[in-house]
Design a protein that fits this description.
With 43 residues, the protein is largely without helices or strands. It has no helix or strand. It has a single domain, classed as Rubrerythrin, domain 2, CATH 2.20.28.10. This is Rubredoxin.
Length: 43
Amino acid sequence: MYEPAVGNLNIDIAPQITFEDIPEHWVCPIYGFGKDVFVPLEG
């Protein structure tokens, strides 16, 4: 789960970067899926 306030420094995504601002060519380093597979969680 990606939390924009925290980012993910393990994969060079700084805090405050929205998921929409992550490059389209990004691929999940754990599962190998592109951004198009992920959906926002409501809550």
